[in-house]
Design goal:
By secondary structure, the protein is α/β, with parallel strands linked by helices. It has 15 helices and 22 strands. Bound molecules: flavin-adenine dinucleotide.
Length: 489
């Protein structure tokens, strides 16, 4: 055997799998399709936010170096197992696999403690997940933990730790197929720096991401129009490992027509740009209103905390005429807009009156837009106070599409409008695994020697997703897959 365990992919799930495998096996190889400077998949594009269970600040202390001053100035609250379960069940419309979800929830905290012990550093996401009201930060959305250095920090740190632990990493190494027979999987055919070779091993962990960067598969499985979405992250996640496993008899599983997709700058490039990272996203819509090309509102911007709506609203934007929409804010909420609104590469217009603003909204029915904004202003229940830290019930009444929370009138210049389209993050459909992360065949049996983790696993996320669960999912099941693969080897 050339290796005990081969891990296909170079993102968070793959690196966690490799690290975990190396606790039980000597010879672990990581195959990363991307060149080194683009390595790390979607994980590198993230903010490094990870959704984990914690029952108070004491559960965060082993992960984050918190000063007493920081503890005094912050209400971390709690995020209990029950809350995580409830969020998963509710946002996936009760379709998430119960066994895998239980593992995701219950292993979330132990897994990040394991990562911390390996050397990954974490901080609290004060910048994006907490609002400072009256001198005290309050975490509002169950999402508190962030890797130091965001996604690039997480990937670089995991890669360095992997290499220090004797794990080999090959870049520009695209896995093409599995070496498999009736007894299971015994190796990988890989094109490494232009040369195709066959490498033998005892077990393979597939962690090569979803198929969102494959335009043809996107359109085939998600439906007409999905070829028009922009890809938020890596261009390398084209479903290779899913196809390889299906060819070896694996079952297709989960929400193949579903995906995570968000509001993304209308003029962003077709696939992610690491220099901009996740900053093409525009996530402050709960403080403003959406208008489409017909000049109409089409979605409840304040239906829930942003962490529970942003991943499904990309699809809603894609369904609008010309696949785009405007996010409109006024001067009152400008300071509360997230940092991504202040980047150079932004499609934005500003004006001192609503009339002037709509006159600059190209591709849009401007008359209808002005009528919509005026009707919206008149419908806001201004007697209810605005509070971003809770679902404040400050709503509109009597509109064709009402806003349930955080409805502010648009009355204070400067007015701003940001043009967004649909940015796809990752596909939800993929392979079926059991709690040991073994890939199941279409007959429901584990395929000997084959394991999977991360984006390419189906059955966990359906329709929607609680923000920050993707990295946790990759880490939890990557760790399990690596250990199972190595112990079987
Ligand atoms: C802009 C953006 C922001 C995000 N923010 C967050 C966040 O803050 N928190 C969060 O939890 N989630 C976030 N996500 C989602 C998150 O990125 C994913 O859920 C997670 O990173 C998936 O990890 P993974 O290891 O499964 O896949 P990836 O990190 O995408 O890794 C897949 C790897 O497989 C490699 N690969 C592909 N094909 C092959 C092949 N044939 N052979 C060898 N290698 C191959 C790729 O090059 C890549 O290295 C974000 C995503 C994006 C795009």
């Amino acid at each position: 055997m050339d290796y005990d365990v081969i891990v296909v992919g170079g993102g968070n799930a793959a690196l966690c799998a490799a690290l975990s495998a190396s606790e039980f096996s000597k010879k672990v190889l990581v195959l990363e399709r991307a060149p080194e400077e683009e390595s790390g998949g979607n994980s590198r594009f993230t903010a490094g936010l990870m959704r984990i269970v914690y029952n108070g600040v004491d559960d965060l202390r082993p992960l984050i170096d918190l000063s007493e001053d920081e503890v005094g100035r912050t209400d971390f609250g709690t995020y209990t197992e029950e809350q995580f379960f409830d969020d998963m069940a509710r946002v996936t419309e009760y379709r998430c696999d119960p066994d895998l979800t239980e593992i995701l929830v219950k292993q979330s905290h132990p897994t990040v403690v394991w990562m911390r012990k390996k050397g990954v550093r974490f901080t609290a996401a004060w910048g994006r997940q907490a609002f400072n009201i009256g001198g005290k930060f309050k975490f509002w959305g169950g999402l508190t933990l962030e890797a130091v250095g965001g996604g690039p920090g997480l990937v670089d740190s995991l890669t360095q730790i992997a290499k220090k632990n004797g794990i080999e990493v090959w870049y520009r190494a695209r896995a093409l197929s599995l070496v498999a027979d009736d007894a299971g999987v015994h190796g990988v055919v890989v094109k490494h720096q232009g040369k195709t070779k066959t490498i033998s091993c005892r077990s393979v962990v597939l962690a090569a991401g979803g198929f969102q960067a494959n335009t043809e598969w996107r359109t085939r499985y998600m439906g007409p129009g999905w070829e028009l979405a922009k890809v938020r992250g890596t261009r390398f996640n084209t479903g290779d490992a899913i196809r390889m496993a299906l060819d070896a008899g694996a079952a297709a599983h989960g929400n193949w027509s579903g995906c995570h997709a968000v509001a993304w700058d209308r003029n962003a490039p077709e696939t992610g740009d690491l220099a901009v990272g996740d900053n093409f996203q525009k996530h402050s819509y709960p403080w403003g209103v959406y208008i489409n090309a017909d000049g109409k509102r089409f979605v409840d911007e304040g239906a829930d905390f942003r962490n529970y709506t942003y991943a499904k609203y990309g699809r809603v934007i894609l369904q609008q005429p010309r696949q785009f929409a405007w996010q409109i804010f006024d001067g009152k909420v400008r300071a509360q807009l997230r940092d991504e609104y202040r980047i150079k590469q932004v499609t934005k217009i500003s004006a001192n009156t609503l009339e002037e603003l709509v006159s600059k909204m190209d591709d849009t029915d401007q008359k209808a837009a002005l009528e919509t904004l005026k009707a919206y202003n008149a419908a806001v229940q201004t007697q209810v106070p605005f509070n971003p830290n809770v679902k404040d019930g400050r709503c509109t009444r009597g509109l064709p599409v009402n806003k349930s929370n955080w409805a502010n009138t648009l009355d204070t210049p400067p007015f701003e409008a940001y043009a967004v389209t649909c940015g796809i993050t990752f596909s939800f459909g993929g392979l079926r695994i059991n709690p040991q992360a073994q890939v199941l065949s279409s007959d429901g049996e584990p395929i000997p020697g084959l394991y999977a983790a991360g984006e390419l696993v189906g059955g966990i996320f359906w329709f929607n997703y609680p923000g920050g669960s993707g990295l946790t999912n990759g880490s939890v099941f990557g760790r399990i897959a690596g250990a199972s693969a190595a112990q079987a080897a």
